[in-house]
Structure formats: C-alpha cells, structure tokens
Design brief:
Distance between the termini: 62 Å
InterPro entries: GmrSD_C, GmrSD_N
Strand content: 5-15%
Largest sheet: 6 strands, mixed
Strand order of the largest sheet: 1-6-3-4-2-5
Shape: globular
Protein name: DUF262 domain-containing protein
Number of strands: 15
Number of helices: 29
Organism: Bifidobacterium choerinum
Pfam families: GmrSD_C, GmrSD_N
Amino acid sequence: MTGKPAVLNIAELFDEGCVYRVPIYQRAYAWGADEIKTLLDDVRRADGQYYLGSLVVARCGSERNRTVYEVIDGQQRLTTLYLLMAALCHDDDDQAAAALDAWHMRLEYECRAESYGALLQQLRKSGAPDQPEDVGAQDGPSDQETMCRPLLDGYQIIRQDFEDPERRIDLEKLRTNVSIVRDELPSGTDLNRYFEVMNTRGVQLRPQDVVKARLMSAVSSPTDRETIGRIWDVCSDMDHYMQCLATPDERMRWFGEGWTSAPPADWNRLVGEAAPDNDGGDDGSAKLSKSFEDVLQEALSEEPPQAEQQAQSGAHSDDETERYRSVISFPAFLMHVLRIYSDDENDASGDVKQTSLDDAELLRVFDDKVAKIFPKTSENSEDSGDSDDSASAEDNAKRFAAALLRCRFLFDNYIVKTHMDSAVSSDATEWTLKCCRKNKSKKERSYYLANAFSDEVQQELIMIQSMFQVTETGNNHKNALYAMLQWLWAKEAVDGSAFLQHIREYARGSLEEKLKGTSTEKRRLQIREAVNQGVGTEHFIFNYLDYALWELLNHADDSPQGQDMSAAGIFGTDELPAVASEVRTRWNEYAEQAEHSGEGAQTLDCRRFRFRYRNSVEHFSPQHPLSGGDAPPNVNDFGNLCLLTVRENSRRNNLDAMEKIRHFNVAQQSLKFQFMVGQAQKETTWGEQQIKDQTELWIRLLDALSDASHVR
C-alpha cells in the first residue's frame, strides 16, 4: 500500500467529495439478507469506535475536482452502506436533513453504468423507489428490473429490518462511531491482474491476507520471508494440530525432538541453523524486499498447503484422532496474538489501554501495533533515516511471526477444543484437551494425541475452560481465553495445577465483577439485585454456578476430608464453607428421593453433566402458564431461572414446572435445573416458596464463591 491506511468514519467517507467506481471486471451487487443483516448487526453493536473492515482502492485521477478511486475490494460492503445511508437520510428530521446535505460521495458501477447509476442517484436524492419501473427505462422494463433487482432487494431488506423500532439504527451513531479502513494501492499496480489474483478460487481479499503480505514484504531475506510464510500457513489452519501441517524439519526445529517444546519468542533462536543463507545471495541482490503487491499476489496464488503438508507428515484429515474444531477463528486468534505482542500500552492518564479482541479491527490494530514496518521510499525519505526504518520494519515482522508461532503452540496444547462430529448437534458438544506428540515407534503414524495434563487436573481444566467457552460464545471478546494465553505465554514449563489455579482466580474475579459485590453489609443485597434480573441475568453467573456445583457434587463421596481440597479450591480456601455442605446434603436428599420414587420420577446425575451451548434463560415456573392462572410474584427471581438451549426453551417455555419435568431428560440438563427438579419432585410442587428457598441458597453460595473473605 502507499502508506498507513486512512481510517474514515462513515461521516468522513460520505461527506468527502470522492467518486468510488466499481470496475467492469468486478461482479454486480450480490449481497443477500444474511450478509446485509450481519452488517446491520455489526453497526448496532458499535460501542465507541467500531471498524467494519477494509476498503481497498486505487486512485485513478480526478473528475470535476473530485478524486476518483477504483474499488478493488470491499464494494459489497460499500454498496450496502450506501443503501443504509439512503434508508436513514430521508427520514423527516433535522439529523437526516443535515446528513443528506453533507453527503457528497458518489458510487458508480461500470458494469451497470446506466441502470445502477439512475437508481443510485434516485436513492441519493429522494430515497429508493418501490418498483424498478420508477427508475427510468433506458434498458426497457424487463432489463431494468433484472439489473436493478439486487439493489432494490437490498434496500427493501434494510427497510423491513427497520420496521421493528428496537432494531432501528441511529444515524448519528452510524456516522460518528462506525469507521472503515481505506487502503490505497501504489500507483502503477496492474489492477486487472491484482483483482484476478485476489479472487483466485473465488475468494476475495481478506484482512488476514493483507496482514500476511505486509509481514512478508517487510523482510529482506528470501529465507526469512519463506519462514514467515510457512509459519503463517501452519498457524492459519485452526482445525489441525501444527505438527500435522509442518514439515519434518520444521517440527524438529520449532517443537524439539518430541514435538513438546514451545517455540521461542526470539526470532534468531527460532530459525537457528535453518537459515545459513539469511543474508541472501553473494551479490546482495536478494536483500531487496519485495513489494507488497508482489508478495500479496504470490500469497494468494498459492494453493492451500494443507494437502501437501498432510502428505509429507503422513496425516489424514479423516483420521479420528484429528477430528476437532477450534473454539476461535484465525482472524480472531490474530487479535489475541496482537495483544500479547503489543504488551498493552499506557495512555496519557496512566490507565491500561488494551488492544481490541474484535477481529473487525484486525487491519487497524495491526497497522497501529506492527505495520510501522515499511521502510521509507527514496522519494519521500531522508537518507539518514532509511536504514533505521528498514531495520525496525524487519524486526517487527520477525517478532510478530515468532509470537504467532508460539501462541499457536500454546493454544494447540493447552486450550480446549470440540470434537468434530456431524451427527451431533451443537448443543451436545463434547470437549477435548489433547496435545500432539511424536510417535517414536513409527509403526503406524508419525504422531499421536495424548492428554495435555495429568489425570488429577485434566477433567478439571476441561470443565472450567468449557464453562468460559459456552459463556463467551462468539469469535470476539474472548477475554477468558486471552487471560489463559497471557499466563501460558510467560511460562517456560506449564504446570497443570498452577494453570487451574490461575483460571479459578480469574473466574472468581469475573464473578465478583458480575455480582458487583463489596465487603460491606450490603453485599448480599447487591448480589440479589444482580441475579434477580429474569432473562437479563448474566449467563456467566449461571455457568459458573454450574461449575461450582459440579466441583462440589463430584467430590461429595470422597473421603477422607483431605480429598476435598479440589472442591475447596474454588472458594480460595483450604476448607469448605457451611453453605457448600448444605448444598451437598440437599442434593443427596433430592437424588435419593428421585431414585426411590418409582415410575415417572426423573433421576438426577451430576457425573454426566457437561457444558453445552445453553444460551436461553428459562423460567421453570412460566411467566405465562398454558394452564391459565397467574405466575408466582417472584417468577423472575434467580431460584426460578436456568439456562437451556434455544430449541428446548422455545418448545416448552410455557409449560408448568411439573409438566416440564415430564418432558425433559433432566439428567442431561444443567445442575441448577436438576436442583429445581429435585426440590419440586421431593415437595411435589413448585411455586413462590420453592423459588424463594432456592434463591436464598444460591445467593449464599455465590457470596462464598465470589470472595473468600466472606465464607460463611
């Protein structure tokens, strides 16, 4: 690119007197409802500055004092923003009128110049027509409808989405809070070739492709450039272990003899003896960095390396031992690496300014933290500064690549994954925590998968990590995952018990934050307020309570008392508080009652409990009973709530509590749900008193869990 990309908010993008021209070799507008609604949802969640991604352009001169850009990548997003602005700027209010007056940007499509041009102009001036016939008739009615239909459909999708007032987007928030990164290609770039390469195999340019190319183009040595490319290829396939994708030489060099060593974060230690020709050829000609566009074309022209690398390693993608799925996408994983790499900067006030974990900001954050790696050109630099800038460019690129490789190794070996099984629904996920090891016998395969930790902590780590995963379900904002990676990053050797203790401390701190507890006499009142929020109650509170119950109940049969240390550890103490003993006693009563109640009673089973994607808050006693009558006055209290899958909740949410028991496989539900069932079955009813009873019990337990100094 020509330099640091321009970050423009939507107001700047639309108010600037520029022409964005989509060249004829690009396809027409093609986004449908899914893509459009995803963009709208992204805009709605903008809190502070939010970045929608990148817009790659090439400057093509000027017309009537307007700068003209050819749109190389991002035209679907840009067109959708145009439709969105048209839908908002024709409201009858001062805000819309001001935005419309300031709108000077033009959008043109060469492939549909007349048809699209007339429609886009009408959108800009007066809002969209409801029928294609309203847009002139240069091509005849039928041609006009065929050509303009995608734009019209896109506009109608936006308008229909706004029919729900709660989904309406605030125009000023859109204009000021939402930004896009405009990357400008260097002059002289062969745009047709660039676009052709960029769309090889039908895949358009992605932010991670830009990041890869920038890293590689900053490095002078061909050997180093190839190493960065190989690191990227191995790390970017998140659904295979790195050792299965690396070459035999890379495995030995990066992971050691048994493939068990974390790669060093230092580049020179990482490449070791593998780069004897690190300075390039004898004549020094290889020392010149390749241009960004050359590297990008090479990177995007390459076929995915997976098949080749699997053939080299003897791995097979359909092997049962490899069937797992990463809990995070590669772009989102890059955000974690960027935060670790940047070591979090302090702003002027002294507060910690953390790098975002939102992959929509990948290019901006990369440019801010790493991409000051481009050496100045002879045209715009002073001679005295070039060598220092070049050295900094190379150092940054190498350091980031080394950090990426090390972080990915830590992720592979110490972070949970899910089994890949198409026959199992997403709400029946099974979790695994395995590491890849060299098979020294070599009778069958070159590697095998082993438990990452000793039996004492393996299942404990799976449970607490999966608890966080079902809470932080999206790709972005996985703060717990970052806390784990950050801790692992600083360790030369990873001790399972210490790792578990770290995650527990982080979880306790997170619970304290959610409950807003203090050390005053008002503490339980604050906890009560935090949990009695009906469907607005934080999901983390439900999931952490289930984790605590799993720890307490699965160690309930242990003796002597000294073996209760694991359960006590969740309270940050050496012994269990009184409320923990009460929970165990009540569970045993409920379980025994269910076991001897005969036909129709549901059994309780804490040992089969696993964390699933239960994302819907359920009222055990419904808010609107199908049988008629009124809901209990404390229907929204915590004692009446639990998490279910959306599918289960939508099918049975209005059934009475006792009727729910007959329809659910209770032993597969959350432990909190099983507790409610146990009490309802024992007392043969569920109502206001039972809800109150359980609410008080959980408030006391959460009080003890969130702060060890308040153990009762």
